[in-house]
Amino acid sequence: MIRVLLVDDQPLIRSGFRALLDLEDDIEVVAEASDGREALELARAHRPDIALVDIQMPVVDGIEATRRIAADPDLAGVHVVILTNYGMDEYVLDALRAGAAGFLVKDVLPEDFLHAVRVAARGDALLAPSITRRLIHRCLAQPAPAVAGPALTELTGREREAVVLVARGLSNDEIAGRMVISPLTAKTHVNRAMTKLGVRDRAQLVVLAYESGLVTPNEV
């Protein structure tokens, strides 16, 4: 069962998402919050698998809520998905750096919304190749935070290859096909790379891959 926390300051938005999720046998909405501070409290109380978080809220906004959830070791299993009104909200990159697993546009089709929840619950990043390209240009257009370049040298050749393929938007199954290995081995390479690079999930791995220069836009 996928446990979901809904976080949005608009009750109508929350009720709409809940109506969709409640129809699914494998998804359960465990709580709702109207701001980021309440979201953190409820995340600690319920330990959801997914927190769907609006990016603009009163009291504590979605980026700060994401940062606090990501920084709490007791909430390591919570995948934050940012909800935005725009295809590339100006705050999305900051949210990914804060620890978000990806983002969804609020007018997404119901079937795509449900698929995204399941994808995030598996630990995969919600970054389609087209979205990744736009993210790349944002990464390159503004000053990047300090990236531990030397940490890249700790990766094995296969781990580096897996990171590059993640940054290009490939799933574990697609990475396995490209590298001619099993999906489990592909997942192992990706997970070991995340551990060595100190990133929380695949979304942060994508950001780091471009900010570090491991992958460049013309390679996508």
Automatic annotation (TrEMBL):
SUPFAM superfamilies: C-terminal effector domain of the bipartite response regulators, CheY-like. The keyword Chaperone does not apply. Residues 148-213 form the HTH luxR-type domain. Keywords: DNA-binding, Phosphoprotein, Transcription, Transcription regulation. It holds the Pfam family Response_reg. The modification 4-aspartylphosphate is found at residue 54. The keyword Transcription regulation applies. InterPro entries: CheY-like_superfamily (IPR011006), NreC/VraR/RcsB-like_REC (IPR058245), Sig_transdc_resp-reg_C-effctor (IPR016032), Sig_transdc_resp-reg_receiver (IPR001789), Tscrpt_reg_LuxR_C (IPR000792), WalR-like (IPR039420). Residues 3-121 form the Response regulatory domain. This is Response regulator transcription factor.
